[in-house]
């Protein structure tokens, strides 16, 4: 696995740890299907959150959330629909983004609920 993928997995692990600490139940990680991929699937308070994790050194070029483009959003939605179609789920779906910045060896995490529709 290359360095970028390893860093991405590390960011996803940090995001999962954060979500658990906030009372979310993790339902899945790295769900992939023909139409797309979802980093984390988690549930809390009547919602199932399909979470995209974006890891960056800092926001000097652009905020991490800006890399969740409309095309990426479509792929996440397609994967979410596939995931939902394979199980009974009475929870309301929601799309979140977790930005993680790592400049200076310090992690800064920003959780954006309902980041897109």
From TrEMBL:
It comes from the Bacteria. One of its GO terms (molecular function) is nucleic acid binding. InterPro entries: Restrct_endonuc-II-like, tRNA_endonuc-like_dom_sf, UPF0102_YraN-like. Belongs to the UPF0102 family. This is UPF0102 protein IAB77_09725.
């Amino acid at each position: 696995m290359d360095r970028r993928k390893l860093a991405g997995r590390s960011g996803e692990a940090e995001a999962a740890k954060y979500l658990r600490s906030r009372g979310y139940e993790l339902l899945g990680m790295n769900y992939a299907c023909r139409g797309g991929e979802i980093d984390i699937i988690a549930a809390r308070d009547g919602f199932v959150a399909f979470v995209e994790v974006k890891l960056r050194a800092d926001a000097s070029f652009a905020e991490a959330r800006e890399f969740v483009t409309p095309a990426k959003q479509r792929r996440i939605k397609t994967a979410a629909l596939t995931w939902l179609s394979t199980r009974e789920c009475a929870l309301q779906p929601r799309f979140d983004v977790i930005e993680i910045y790592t400049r200076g060896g310090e992690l800064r995490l920003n959780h954006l609920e309902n980041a897109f529709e």
